[in-house]
Amino acid sequence: MPALGVSQETGRVLRWLKAAGDEVASGEPIVEIETDKVTVEMEAPASGVLGPIKTDEGQDVPVGHVIGLILAPGESPPAEAPHAPSPAGGGASPLARRRAREAGIDPRAVFGTGPGGAVTAADVAAATDAPESGAGGAVEVGPVWRRMVEHVSASWAAPHFFLTRDVDAEQLVAWRASLGDDVTITDLVVWLVARALERHPEVNARWEDGAPRRVADVDVGIAVAIDDGLIVPVVHGANRLEVREVAERRRDLVARARDGALRPEDVQGGTFTVSNLGMFGVDAFTAIVNGPQAAILAVGRVADRVVAVEGRPAVRPRMHLTLSCDHRVVDGARGARFLATLTELAEEPLRLVT
């Protein structure tokens, strides 16, 4: 079982892509692994024949434990193949296993909330009392949702403040139209954010080891809603990309996020996050900072509004941008200056591309 993250302790075998006895080539995907952040296809570390499979689909095992063997052609498996199955009951406590037997359920099918994901007696009771679909009561959630809950709860503990600007989006809309349907407002905002972060490196920072720390790379995360919760894949080096390159990477990341095919590096290293709910008709909102990052930008929809233009009422496309900041890293003045620069770029983006 590979370690796909610093804090990962276990992984789940979702699906074997090869069967025992199949020939495999080095680098060929052979098994799908799920962690609390991503689902990845694990590649064969060597060429040969897939020998005994030690871990069934749906089973959780600790990092470093053998889940299968690759043998040389004609090689026999060792008499005592090294493997370490999951603890009895899928890591359940003795009381939880007894309660599960009494209830007639498999404790390995119960989501554990104890230390290291261990199944407790309370988990078994909750699973036993699970309501029929559509009825009231607790809803079972997966590891991605639980990880999201833990992360946003920890992030919300940081001292937040919020800044909002009403932006003239006329040139932004015209620019997007000139680029075609493959480019979205999100793509343009990510591209502009990366340029604004270059001018304000104090915002391209994080709270780390009890102090603010500026980051050299500009890696912009995009909040993506998936069936299991929320995940933030990262456009690495966004300040070095052209607009169409940002759009291409965003399409790829979003598609793989929704297919559960993100790689560990796709969700690591973000320095700033963009969250756009405009496609849901949301005018404006405030977002929770994606710690340890220093700030997140909430993007509302582009909509025609009546505004004063040279003292007369006129209809113009407008959008709200709301910046949430971790006050330990970014104070009000620094956040305001960054948002002012981003607003200027959004209102006259063609100055950057002409």
Number of strands: 18
Shape: elongated
Based on the structure given, which CATH architecture of the largest domain is correct?
A: 2-Layer Sandwich
Radius of gyration, in Å, reads 24 Å
Mean pLDDT: 85
CATH topology of the largest domain: Chloramphenicol Acetyltransferase
Strand content is: 25-35%
Number of helical stretches of at least 4 residues: 8
Q: What is the element string, with H for helices and E for strands? A: EEEEEEEHHHHEHHEEEEEEHEEEEH
Distance between the termini: 50 Å
Computed structural class:
alpha+beta
Indicate the low-confidence ranges by residue numbers.
Answer: 81-85
**What is the domain tally?**
3
| CATH class wording of the largest domain | Alpha Beta
The major pleated sheet works out as: 7 strands, mixed
What does this structure look like?
The chain is of the alpha+beta class. The protein folds into 3 domains: 10-71, Beta Barrel (OB fold (Dihydrolipoamide Acetyltransferase, E2P)), CATH 2.40.50.100; 91-140, E3-binding domain (Dihydrolipoamide Transferase), CATH 4.10.320; 150-352, Chloramphenicol Acetyltransferase. It is built from 8 helices and 18 strands. Strands 8, 11, 14, 15, 16, 17 and 18 form a 7-stranded mixed β-sheet that branches. A 4-stranded antiparallel β-sheet has the order 4-3-1-6, with no helix packed on it. A 3-stranded antiparallel β-sheet has the order 2-5-7, with no helix packed on it. β9 and β10 (211-214) form a beta hairpin.
